[in-house]
């Protein structure tokens, strides 16, 4: 089993805990909600793109790369018993009229504080090209949102990808980027999931309400809940 990654101080420094750009991706979970507590001095624009529109254009323009996303990938997964899972990133036929995407770069390519384990197969050239193309086309379809303190945003994480620009914080009060994220699910209206995602979703949602924690103060993401 893979060991959960740690940073130099024993903690995982996820992409959301860093000020660099975050390319287009999806989180785990149905509905992503963000509440802006404070914003950065500059930068940090938030982007949303429709997964179906992005994938349809990719399939039309670069069908080999589109097919690569539908084929199996080896992805780090803390909810899996082996520490990884093998599945597609894109599920184009699962829901009529909609393309479902579950694609986290941190779990595919690794990050500076959590490199992709050497025990996993190396990414192929076409796989790297495919996830880069997914980001590039998502940006061409994206809407840009400048989140202000007090703003809230909710979106369907299964059918929309999101990204963020890098940002610069300021030491002054209220000039440090701080967003509160909740991963929600409406059982009555929830999409049926591809079976390859069932174990991850169960680990995310199947717990007692008493175990939930609302981190209003800034803290590092856990590896299991990051992206």
Automatic annotation (TrEMBL):
The keyword Repeat does not apply. Keywords: Oxidoreductase. Residues 1-23 are annotated as: Disordered. This is TauD/TfdA-like domain-containing protein. It comes from Stereocaulon virgatum. Residues 15-182 form the TauD/TfdA-like domain. The keyword Transmembrane does not apply. It comes from the Eukaryota. Residues 1-11 have a biased composition (Polar residues). PANTHER family: FAMILY OXIDOREDUCTASE, PUTATIVE (AFU_ORTHOLOGUE AFUA_4G13850)-RELATED, GAMMA-BUTYROBETAINE HYDROXYLASE-RELATED.
């Amino acid at each position: 089993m893979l060991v959960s990654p740690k940073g130099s101080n024993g903690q995982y420094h996820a992409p959301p805990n860093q000020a660099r750009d975050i390319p287009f991706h999806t989180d785990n979970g149905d509905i992503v909600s963000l509440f802006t507590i404070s914003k950065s001095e500059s930068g940090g624009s938030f982007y949303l793109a429709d997964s179906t529109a992005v994938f349809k254009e990719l399939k039309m323009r670069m069908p080999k790369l589109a097919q690569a996303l539908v084929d199996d990938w080896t992805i780090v997964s803390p909810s899996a018993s082996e520490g990884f899972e093998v599945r597609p990133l894109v599920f184009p036929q699962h829901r009529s009229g909609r393309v479902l995407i579950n694609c986290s770069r941190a779990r595919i390519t690794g990050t500076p504080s959590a490199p992709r384990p050497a025990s996993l197969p190396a990414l192929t050239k076409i796989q790297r090209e495919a996830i880069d193309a997914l980001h590039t086309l998502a940006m061409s379809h994206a809407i840009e949102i400048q989140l202000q303190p007090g703003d809230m945003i909710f979106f369907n994480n299964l059918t929309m990808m999101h990204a963020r620009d890098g940002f610069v914080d300021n030491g002054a009060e209220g000039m440090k980027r701080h967003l509160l994220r909740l991963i929600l699910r409406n059982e009555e209206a929830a999409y049926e999931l591809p079976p390859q995602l069932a174990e991850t979703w169960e680990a995310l949602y199947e717990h007692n309400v008493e175990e939930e924690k609302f981190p209003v103060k800034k803290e590092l993401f856990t590896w299991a809940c990051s992206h």
